[in-house]
Amino acid sequence: MRMSPPPRLHQHSIREHARALRAGEYSCVELTQHFLARIEAATDLNALISVTAELALQQARRADRRIQAGDPDWLLGIPLVHKDLFCTEGVLTSCGSKMLDNFISPYTATAVAKLEQRGAVMLGKSNMDEFAMGSSSETSYYGAVLNPWDKARVAGGSSGGSAAAVAARLTCVATGTDTGGSIRQPAALCGLTGIKPSYGRVSRYGMVAFASSLDQGGVLTRNAADAAIVLHAMSGFDPRDSTSLQQETPNYHDFIEQPLAGKTIGLPKQFFGEGVEPEVSEMVMQAIAQLQTMGAKTVPVELPNSEASIPCYYVLAPAEAASNLARFDGVRYGHRAAEYADLTDMYANTRTEGFGAEVKRRIMIGTYVLSSGYYDAYYIKAQKLRRMIADDFQQAFKQCEVLAGPTTPTTAFALGEKNHDPIAMYRNDIFTNSVNLAGLPGISIPAGLDRNGLPVGLQLIGRYLDEATLLNVAHQFQQATDWHLKTPPGYL
Amino acid sequence: MSITNQTITHLAHLARLHIDAKQAEFYAAQLSRILELVEQMNRIDTDDIAPMSHPQESVLRLREDQATADDRREAYQRIAPATAQGLYLTPKVIE
Question: Could B38 and A103 be called an inter-chain contact, meaning their C-beta atoms sit closer than 8 Å?
Answer without folding.
Answer: no
